[in-house]
Fold this sequence. Notes:
By secondary structure, the protein is of the alpha/beta class. The protein has one domain: TIM Barrel, CATH 3.20.20. It has ten helices and nine strands. The chain is globular, with a radius of gyration of 17 Å. The relative contact order is 0.15.
Amino acid sequence: MNQKPVQGFVDLHTHILPGVDDGAKDLAEALELLTMAWENGTSHVVLTPHYRGRWRSNTPEFLRQRFAELSAEAAKILPNLTLYLGNEAGNVPEVGEKVAEGRVLSLNDSRYVLLEFDYTCSRIQLINGVMDVIGSGYTPVIAHAERYEIFRKNKKLAYEVLEVGALIQLNADSVLGKCGLLAKLCCSRLLKRGMVHFIASDAHDLQERPPVLRECFEHVSKRWGEEYAWELLRDNALAILTGQWR
């Protein structure tokens, strides 16, 4: 396969690990998703299967086995693509303790955890979840913050979570307005104020939620500058994955 030059996007939030959640169903689909990501300019992909609900039975050992299998097959067709493993951790009771004990995976075994909340969570539930993770010695990366009603309604909440040390991730489709006006407006407000650290695809499939970032990169570059776009879609993610966060 003739590969295109690496463009360097880092996708921090995906559901491409096959057969473990509501993302890729099997190895073939996972490889298609990774190929799509590569051809769209992504050179690093973090596989973040859900840890919540029925998927809490997926042990780290099982996920690492699936990760090794996918990595081996991906290397045959995409040798320059770099893969990492983590969880998208739901705000379950004592989630911070579960991460500290190794029952939930941080991002590439770093001190950073992708943390998801219910879309209708309250302010206190969100703050408590953030503080739970911080209290266990980890930094929470709030997954797709624009999708939570409380983030849309409470404009001070972003300041609160940033002040205590959390980081914020947005979904590329939301930034582009593909997930509704309210999500887009929330993204624009946070981006304008420099309160976003990462933009990721949250990819689940090839059609409705694909692993593509280039369109969003171009959009952010045009509105807020190319340097900021690279920070959000490459530099910041690499920094936490490699232990070089400022």
